[in-house]
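DM from R.C. (forwarded with permission)

"hey, sorry to bug you on a friday — could you get me a structure for this? deadline for the figure draft is monday and I only need the backbone to look sensible"
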Amino acid sequence: MAWDEWEQLKSAAAKRHTTQMQLNQLSADPGGSSVSGHGAGGAGTLKHSSGPWTRAAGTAGDLRTSTGMSKADLGSAHDGIASATEGLASLGPLKSVVASWQRRLGSVRDECDSLEPALRQVAKDMGEVDVKVATQAGSVKVATTGKSE
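My reply, with the result:
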């Protein structure tokens, strides 16, 4: 496989899935922090979305597939090269480079194979934690100030 083709595959995978992370927070208070009954973080300022985790999992899956295909293409592109270049001094280094790239592509493929389900699990777990925390927080009774009971 030509280097340009490899760069095109990487670029295409990156265009299909962009992974971004955004933190929602209160703007900094230059005069110090004033807590007004909502806790240090304010009310409702932290939000979770499983979207980035799910997109990252999709990117890992796409990369796993493309590196697997690239590894196979690299192998088939060099089939028979040993007999065609027998006696040339460059045959040894060529075999070494091909073997090195096959190992690297295999490692990337294997890493993406393990990352994809882990990233999907994080999205699922975070969503379940959000629901559990919301349920627990909703059951807390907050005393109203200024009323006698």
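R.C.: lifesaver. The chain has a mean pLDDT of 75.
me: no worries. The first helix runs from residue 3 to 16.
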